[in-house]
Amino acid sequence: MQVGLLTLAQKNEIEGKEFAPDSFFNPILDANNNWVMSIQEMEQATIPPYQWVHDLPLIEYIPKTN
Amino acid sequence: MIGLGIGLKFGGAVTLDPATTAFITAAGITDPTQINAINRLVLNYKGQGNLNTSVDLWSVSTALFPYVGGSASSHKFNLKNPQDTDAAFRLSFSGGWTHNANGITGNTLNTFGNTFLKPSDLAQNSHRLLGYVRTDTGGASFESIGGASNAAFTNGLAFDTRKSTNSHAPYSNTGFAAQANANRTGLTGVIRTASGSFKVFRNGVALYTVTATSLTPLTINMYVGAQNNNGSLFNPTGQNLAFEVFGDGLSDANALIEYNIIQQFQTDLGRNV
Lengths: 66, 273
Hints:
The structure holds 2 protein chains of 2 kinds. Chain A is of the alpha+beta class. Chain A is built from 2 helices and 6 strands; from the N terminus they run E-H-E-E-E-E-H-E. Chain A has helices at 8-14, 39-44, and strands at residues 2-6, 18-20, 23-24, 28-29, 35-38, 58-60. Chain A starts with a strand and ends in a 6-residue tail after the last strand. By secondary structure, chain B is an alpha+beta fold. Chain B has 4 helices and 19 strands. Chain B has helices spanning 18-27, 32-45, 72-75, 252-268, and strands at residues 5-7, 13-15, 61-65, 92-94, 98-100, 103-105, 112-114, 127-133, 143-149, 156-162, 167-174, 179-180, 186-192, 197-202, 205-211, 223-224, 227-229, 232-234, 240-247. Chains A and B meet through strand 3 and helix 2 of A and strand 4 of B. Strand 3 (23-24) of chain A pairs parallel with strand 4 (92-94) of chain B.
């Protein structure tokens, strides 16, 4: 699946913040230690000042393996 | 019964139970079909409804999440205590959930709902965790209805399933013991009523019994739609969930009553499976 790629600074800015009513960002790390977010969060973000996530670059998600 | 009377589709004015009024007020629900469905759900849980006239399932339920209303703002409320507080076990949704008339759907990536309810809030030897799953999707990874586990997976209260292997991973204040079983939809989960074993149920019928002595319940928050593995997100679901319940254990007979009540609710909303 495709996910939005975040910088560390972006991740720190949005982590745990409300992006839509009663919905909170949950960035996660991928296998390459990139911070990423879901397409759904990108599409649904309506609460300022986080609409900039709509324009995040997309990468293919590679899950961490335990 | 005291409540707000409004004219609804079941023929004339219907008096709403106070629990219904409290919930629809908190959740901002105004659709008559949804209101009727919730009221019937509440009355049946209280043993005052058309499907249940005698068994009080309301007082043995700690959290009921009917996922009705179509948005995170309505889905977050606990029907038992619809206050917007962690102490009322109001859900906090994180990640990219899809909320609509069918309930909530995870993305297998980063979705979870924090219940703020811990296994230790339920009795060690009498508890249940059940979820109404509408979609049989999935692949090689387990997907969780919800719950919590310790870091080593040797203690937990949770229920996960995997489509590719047709298997369950049920926890009931003990570690999981994977079970071969293809039934991933409907009302599924765990019910414990004794210290030495617990049962996995689907649609009100016990599928199998797991011999496992219960352990001291964990004191970490349970999630819906994923496991809280000692603070780490584990097995986020991609399935569509239309109801979840946490509470005391039930006898086989009462588990069937509860299923019939929840199924009626889903049918009233046109989303039964």
